[in-house]
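JOB MANIFEST
job_type = single_chain_structure
chain_count = 1
residues = 478
[input]
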Amino acid sequence: MPEKAAILGIGHGPQAYNGFVRVLLISTYDMGRQPFGLASPAAWLQHAGLDVACADLSKEQLQDSAIEEASLIAFFLPMHTATRLALPVIDRLRLLNPRAQLAAYGLYAPLNAAMLRAHGVTHVLGGEFEQDLLDVALNAARGDAPPLAPAREAHQVPRSPASIPRLAFRVPLRDGLPPLARYATLQIAGERRTAGYSEASRGCKHRCRHCPIVPVYNGRFRLVPVEVVLGDVRAQVAAGARHITFGDPDFFNGIRHAEAVLAGMSREFQGVTYDVTIKIEHLLKHAAQLPLLRETGCAFVTSAVESMDDRVLAKLDKGHTRADVERVVALFGEIDLPLAATFLPFTPWTTTASYLDLLHAIDALDLVESVSPVQLAVRLLIPEGSRMLELPEVRAVTAAFNPASLTHPWVNADPAVDRLQEEVTRIVGTRLASPRREVFSQVWDAAHRHANVSAPPRQASGLLPRAAIPYLNEPWYC
């Protein structure tokens, strides 16, 4: 997303280099949305005069001809699932085109650098990847030696905050991707809306202990200029989007910037809804701005509650308490704005009693229809470089890094909790299309059974029916 003429090679096409060059950008999974991580670097590469092709393997098959023509093949790895899915594809591509240089970029690339190199990846880039990926491509175009010098490839873990570059962002190029209509949609008031995705900022100024952003950004975030954000939204609206997900780790990290983006959205895209992710801490700090969200077309706000246990919240370094969560739920009820709470219910500190307490809290706060069932089954992932390993009690139950799972596996001190997590995962995994209230009831019964207590009657819903609560129809999350 930067724009320095000398670096980008403005005015120079592929003919300026040693023969034809094609860069192939690949996404394996991006939570059911059109991959921003392909569209953004594609804009840089094309602007520099390089030939670029994009392939979203969650929606299309990768043709052998595209593989064989590529001089550089780069994998976008924004999350755990995408990384695991990429490994067999990397191995296949090495066989089909051993001449091509391989790169990996995105949050999970530096977290898994050693494993990626073992699979033949020569360039491992981090969160602010566009400039470095462009430099790799230009080197390949000139026929330079594959690996970047160690000083340039600075995206290792842990990373110095000062080393995170400040990029001059470009409007993403989405022409080479499957149409938005093939991706997850927003369900709102009985209507299905085509959904787009953009980012108004990257990284996060907070250092929640379990978050995979922290080892890469280490408390830093970067703002995308408002005109670039609106340019990206404009292109997607022209392509049919009636809803936009802002994928910022925390949309309120830069509150004035967020207000400027929302003002632009409201001014130019009337009738287009959007959703954002905001910390509980920021929802309280900036409570005065919550009506602005509602007034400018926000369909719902996602917030990582994680736990209703103050002891666990402190271990995770979340910056909020159970009482804070209850305050936020009340505030959202006052302005009639849906809150999509996400959770991390299974941690080394989870007991059957604390899991029951979480379910009872979700029920009492009337959040059942607002919580995706997969959130009831989430188990803590501990990737390489995680701050969770700072805690002695975590290290005590955690094994060495497992390259197959891309995590440090751990077990709960009480085997009954791990058995409960396995059953909840089975319930959720086999009921993806079922009504949320039905899935919650099954989990409710299973949890009480594992705790050897009778399941009390659940609270009757006092809110609107499920159809009135907006949600994106992609069931998985990481």
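[summary]
The longest strand covers residues 298-306.
Residues 1-19, 148-162 have pLDDT under 50 and may be disordered.
exit_status = 0
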